[in-house]
Design goal:
Shape: globular
Number of helices: 31
Oligomer: single chain
Largest sheet: 6 strands, mixed
Number of strands: 16
Strand order of the largest sheet: 2-1-6-3-5-4
Distance between the termini: 56 Å
Length: 781
Amino acid sequence: MTSPSGPQFSPSREWRGTQPGATPEPRRSDEERHSASPISPSPSQLTWEYQWEDSLNSVARRAVHPPLVRRIAEEVARASAIGKTATVFLRGELGIGKTTLRRLLTDSELGLVANDYVENPVVANGLRTCGVIEAEDLESPVDFARRINRYDDDCSIVVMARPGTLEAAAQWIFRQPTATVTMNTYEPTRPVFRECLREICRTINLDNSQHLDLLTEIASRLPDFMCTPFYFKILAEFVETHPDPSDVLSRSPLELLRISINQRFGDEAYDDLIACATGRIGERGVEQVAGILNEHGAFVHDGYRNVVLAGALLDHQLAIRELIALPNAIPAVRIALDHIEKVRSPRSETAAALIDELEQFVVTEQGYGQIRYLLYFQGLIARSLRRVRRETAALALRTRCLDLISNDEARRLRDSGTVAATLLWDISDALSLINDPRLYRARHEKYAPTSGYFTFVPRQAVEIGSEFTPQRIDDAKPVLPYTRQEVQIGPMWIANFLVTNEQYQEFWNDPDRSNYFVGTGRQWIDNDATVIAAIEDSFDVAARRCFWKEARDEASAVVAGVGSSMPILDIARVRALRQAARVALWDPTQADDRFSAPGSPVVGITWWEAIAFCQWWTDRKLPDSGFPEGSVANLATDWEWEALRRVYYDGIDVADASVNQSDRYGAHLRKPNRAAAAADGRISNILRPLHVGLFTVPAGPGPFDMVGNVWEWTRSKVYGNIVPTTIEHGSYGHTAWEDIDASAEQIAESVGGEIVDQNNDLNYRAVRGASFFSIDPQAAW
């Protein structure tokens, strides 16, 4: 997108800002921005490439006319026409045009559309009072959410921010978006890419076709974070003064940025930017740099700061340890590493020296408590160095992470102070980035019995059950037997690790995966009308148990569907019944790396999908892995799971405690509120799945993560139903659990006695182990 009014790439400005004594344009308040304003003509040539997602559906990525501003305005008008408010979350990276879009909405488009509704004052007023809010640079997510929450519930709002800012702020924003719009970078394969370059060439009078071809070739090599109009303009200015293609094409994008700035505006310009980015020069300590620094010496966008910091690292004006000590340094590190990967081979002494510096930093630096996210930074660096064939850093980091899992001193550090949760995040992310050697060995050895992936469990009698009824504060259905009894388990091999996203995606990508669904699961994936109708019949009460608070609070607020309003229970129904409406959390193209990291446990799958995975493993993995002929992969039953936990985790004395110690598995159990989570300076709520195998097994070797991380399916049924009640429960609203045959759960006649025939199976299933989101210590049972 290009526009003469966009401050981040305005061609009419001089680099060194306004003249001394000039009065900057005053910043308008939120109230001023969303009030009715004089109508100005809307630019006709603006084009956005975006993806529009409402509560159920998504529109394919596209470059459109009329532009996105008109689409947003029409959404506000549609909501106003049915007496509702629209909340639009607009996500876009650095320089993509959010600021220009905000100005177009407040200064023209909303007012223009309002003029079309002069005979409908409700709609016209809804458009003229619509709030348009953009995140400030380096504004905290909490402060950003507070600004949004100041708007009345009867006022539509459009919220603009970078994806990470919106994601972080969403938990404090009181409204759910009716639509989320993602503004995309300019991909070279799409027409909008060349349209944008042509428009920028026109604005700086660079109209030679050869110049345009050269600019197109350079822009096509930009990494995603630099595919924005601002950088296109920087490149166009460089091409204007350096028409020699060989000179231009031999340089990296970050080099072009630095050279362009220094050559056009003096050698001190880039140094000034570095000084501002690192905080060495405070406000007003440097002249305004039009489009990058404002009149106060602050960056117009924090993304510009990140690029400058990355360039400073590459030019050896900043050491890696200095860089990661700065606030919000992760994007800058990513930019610099992207540059190293693109260059591939160290063609100069300075490039080779930087790679050596990064390698030494990973190998030697171990200040876990002093540098936040240290292991995560080291994981990013080690992954990039592997891509340029430098393995030393990855080898050192793998050893360090495994030591932190098993070393007593490291565990003490992990479980105390302010590094409790952050160090766990670090270890989890680092192992996913550089490949967990335990999983690598198992995969390389085809998951054989000797690969370290399985533990052999001989046939044995294990006493399970207890002499008390578990007291669950979340009022969930307890399936632990109320009386002690002895059960036989084994011989079997138990997997030491939960199924990972990487393993599950291999199953999902198998073209024959549907063949591994059996019985009712097969009917479900085939959308068999009988099964779908049976699910729908039991859906309402079960869904109200999950969403009763949302259903209660939506008396005056609904989530917008396509052309109509759709309550949250209907949305949940569609997502439960239509596979296409579900988000594949194991797929990195659909979910972020909190859920989709390759070494994290797969989450968000149905019981039928878990059973199909086991069938697939039996067919695809077992025959070549060295297990005895006839071996079968399956989920454990509820009784087997409980017996295995007794063997590897807890003895009888612990199991007979009337209440589980609240801190026994504290790293995995969510504190019920923020105050409790941050008590004594600890960050104790994990709030995400962690890489598999991070916690030692008390009586190991054996299965990791049996208590905590994520809930685990068993193949056992639960004897009962969710039913409506007249009494409202604090956790589940007007629903309760009705036992059908509780005695069947209290006495294990046989290990497999409670398994339902998969050909006639629509029962509730027992889950085990608790998760990062559990608030009840008893859930660990």
